[in-house]
């Protein structure tokens, strides 16, 4: 039997709708979470797939941005050593890379977009030898005309190189915050915050890394002590650099970073790769015997009588002489090429007398012709001067001896005119050679034009140094830029008669080490005792004789005796007999001990480019202490010198790298590395040690 249950019309309609039976309601209620779970599961699976795809792309991109120990990101790159430690960091300060525009093909990583627009960026890996890895880096803007700047972080290492500076430290010691400024040759005696007359775009690190900025870069250098970084910038705006003719002023920063197994070997590689070497060794006599200059003694008051008396006194006191250097002012006006008849009434007779007494003579010369010289009009008529930007008129410049024009050594006619006058002096008086002063780009007008347009103003310095080539046996230059192949003597800038690091006695070793690392090996360390300027002399000048401090003079000549060449001006006999005896002792030691070793090394560097004067780390590149020593140096690998550079001291601390050493007193030390604390060094001594070969 079945039972019929009556249902209202509305209820029947609902039973055919969504209400359903209680069972259906229960099933519907329980089904929603399942649907949601399935839906969420699908979403999670999809998210995982997307994440995996993104991870895979990121992984591929990360792999793409790596090449041979270098990791690139949008903000810069790092280089690691074989052990995985970061040894080089470069940050992109002027822009970031769009990594989506980057690709890798073989050993080249390249990108076409930065955050600010189109560019040509690449890093190419080059392995020139098993122990060296190099990275060619180029960032060339294709739209932005402002600047390109990369910042190189110190990474806890010590850096060397760059430029001669007025306050010279070894290793480089950056101070304060400095916006990038043109990296061009300047006279640091007159502008003590500038870059010096000898400079190259090359730096070397104790981490066995080195960097060379390309010649084509409109290069500006700044630094930050806060970030412990050097700032490398390329720009044409507000700059003396000019783009090559016919090219748009779009800046390009390009350089090569090389990593080696140790600092000495990577430097040797960089020198062979990027620096020209001298083609010959200049006069052996200059290495053996002192140069005697008239400058610090007589300044511009030099006369024929004073020069002859100076030569006579050199002989009378038993000193040798490679040559006499007749300095500023033997001409009547600046820009002339003959002797002032009032000061030198018989120049020919004077030279005959000097030659008869065994003296050779070099003359001071410079690139200026003052407006009151008879040669000024000649140079204007012939078009020999650097000109104003329009090229119509000669540009007047101010230098330390007045106002005049500066000769344009990019002009072949200027070069021939200048050379012909020097050759005339050489022929007429049998002049041996010349001391070339100035040549820094800081003496060019702010805006100028030259016969051959200069993209890099320091090319002017290079052209000036080339004028010394015909006289290179005994020629002296105080500037150098890409001039390492000019086989003459390079003098560091004038020193003050002070003890410290600002153009004083303590600055000599750091400066000589720096210019040596830059490839300039035949170094003159300037005049013993400094220039004796009254306002730039320790303790003031001696009231009676106008001399630098006696102790300073003695310590200066002792250091100079271990340099490639010695240069006197203020004579030892201006003091007393003891100073004369000390000077005789050290000029003899220089000739018998130092010069033979220096000449041997000079011959070798024609092939190797290795420095004559070397830092201690040259033979101890795994010794952290050796990287910071700035008051000792090596001549070759086996003669170490430790002069006294402090007033009132007759002792000093000396660091001996590992090895067997014999002191000048005959002591033996073979348990290095070690410090010799308060090692006694009398006033008439220099501590030096020779390596004892097993």
UniProtKB/TrEMBL annotation:
This is Myogenesis-regulating glycosidase. Keywords: Endoplasmic reticulum, Glycoprotein, Glycosidase, Hydrolase, Membrane, Nucleus, Signal-anchor, Transmembrane, Transmembrane helix. The keyword Nucleus applies. Interacts with IGF2; this interaction is required for IGF2 secretion. The chain crosses the membrane at residues 32-55. It is a single-pass type II membrane protein. Coiled coil: none annotated. Residues 609-685 form the Glycosyl hydrolase family 31 C-terminal domain. Residues 1-22 are annotated as: Disordered. The gene is LOC114441965. It comes from the Eukaryota. It is found in: Endoplasmic reticulum membrane; Nucleus membrane. Its main location: endoplasmic reticulum. PANTHER family: GLYCOSIDASE FAMILY 31 (PTHR43053), MYOGENESIS-REGULATING GLYCOSIDASE (PTHR43053:SF4). Residues 301-442, 505-593 form the Glycoside hydrolase family 31 TIM barrel domain. GO terms for biological process: carbohydrate metabolic process; skeletal muscle fiber development. Belongs to the glycosyl hydrolase 31 family. Pfam families: Glyco_hydro_31_2nd (PF01055), Glyco_hydro_31_3rd (PF21365). It comes from Parambassis ranga. GO terms for molecular function: hydrolase activity, hydrolyzing O-glycosyl compounds.
């Amino acid at each position: 039997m079945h039972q019929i249950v009556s249902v209202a019309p509305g209820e029947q309609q609902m039973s055919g709708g969504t209400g359903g039976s209680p069972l259906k309601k229960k099933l519907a209620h329980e089904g929603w979470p399942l649907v949601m779970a399935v839906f969420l599961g699908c979403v999670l699976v999809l998210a995982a797939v997307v994440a995996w795809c993104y991870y895979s792309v990121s992984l591929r991109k990360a792999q793409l941005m790596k090449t041979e120990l270098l990791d690139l990101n949008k903000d810069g790159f790092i280089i690691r050593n074989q052990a995985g430690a970061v040894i080089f960091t470069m940050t992109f300060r002027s822009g970031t890379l769009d990594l989506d525009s980057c690709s890798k093909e073989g050993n080249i990583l390249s990108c076409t977009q930065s955050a600010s627009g189109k560019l040509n960026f690449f890093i190419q890996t080059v392995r020139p030898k098993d122990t060296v890895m190099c990275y060619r880096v180029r960032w060339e803007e294709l739209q932005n005309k402002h600047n390109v700047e990369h910042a190189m972080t110190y990474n806890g290492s010590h850096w060397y190189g760059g430029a001669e500076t007025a306050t010279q430290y070894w290793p480089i010691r950056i101070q304060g915050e400095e916006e990038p400024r043109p990296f061009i040759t300047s006279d640091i005696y007159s502008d003590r915050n500038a870059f010096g007359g000898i400079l190259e775009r090359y730096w070397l690190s104790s981490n066995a890394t080195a960097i060379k900025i390309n010649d084509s870069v409109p290069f500006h250098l700044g630094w930050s002590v806060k970030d412990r970084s050097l700032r490398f910038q390329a720009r044409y705006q507000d700059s003396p650099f000019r783009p090559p003719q016919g090219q748009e002023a779009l800046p390009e920063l390009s350089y090569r970073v090389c990593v080696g197994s140790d600092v000495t070997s990577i430097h040797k590689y960089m020198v062979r790769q990027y620096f020209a070497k001298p083609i010959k060794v200049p006069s052996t006599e200059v290495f053996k015997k002192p140069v005697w200059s008239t400058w610090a003694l007589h300044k511009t008051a030099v006369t024929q009588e004073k020069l002859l008396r100076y030569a006579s006194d050199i002989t009378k006191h038993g000193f040798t002489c490679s040559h006499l250097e007749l300095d500023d002012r033997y001409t009547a006006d600046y820009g002339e090429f003959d002797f002032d008849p009032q000061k030198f009434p018989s120049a020919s007779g004077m030279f005959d007398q000097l030659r008869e007494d065994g003296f050779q003579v070099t003359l001071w010369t410079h690139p200026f012709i003052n407006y009151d010289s008879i040669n000024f009009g000649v140079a204007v008529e012939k078009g020999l001067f650097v000109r104003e930007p329009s090229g119509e008129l000669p540009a007047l410049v101010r230098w330390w001896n007045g106002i005049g024009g500066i000769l344009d050594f990019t002009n072949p006619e200027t070069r021939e005119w200048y050379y012909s006058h020097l050759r005339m002096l050489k022929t007429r008086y049998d002049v041996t050679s010349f001391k070339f002063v100035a040549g820094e780009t800081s003496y060019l007008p702010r805006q100028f034009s030259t016969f051959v347009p200069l993209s890099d103003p320091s090319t002017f310095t290079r052209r000036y140094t080339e004028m010394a080539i015909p006289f290179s046996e005994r020629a002296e230059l105080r500037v150098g830029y890409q001039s390492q192949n000019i086989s003459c003597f390079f003098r560091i800038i004038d020193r003050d008669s002070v003890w410290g690091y600002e153009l004083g006695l303590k600055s000599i070793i750091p400066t000589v080490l720096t210019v040596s690392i830059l490839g300039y090996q035949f170094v003159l360390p300037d005049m013993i005792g400094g220039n004796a300027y009254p306002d730039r002399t320790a303790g003031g000048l001696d009231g009676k004789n106008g001399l630098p401090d006696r102790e300073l003079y003695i310590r200066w000549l002792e250091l100079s005796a271990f340099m490639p060449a010695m240069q006197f001006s203020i004579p030892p006999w201006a003091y007393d007999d003891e100073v004369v005896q000390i000077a005789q002792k050290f000029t003899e030691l220089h000739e018998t001990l130092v010069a033979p070793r220096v000449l041997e090394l000079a011959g070798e560097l024609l092939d190797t480019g290795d420095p004559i004067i070397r830092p201690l780390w040259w033979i101890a590149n795994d010794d952290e202490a050796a990287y910071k020593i700035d008051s000792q140096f090596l001549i070759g690998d086996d003669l170490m010198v430790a002069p006294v550079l402090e007033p009132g001291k007759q002792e000093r601390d000396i660091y001996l790298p590992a090895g067997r050493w014999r002191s000048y007193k005959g002591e033996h030390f073979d348990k290095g590395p070690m410090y010799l604390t308060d090692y006694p060094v009398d006033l008439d001594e220099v501590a030096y040690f020779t390596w004892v070969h097993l």
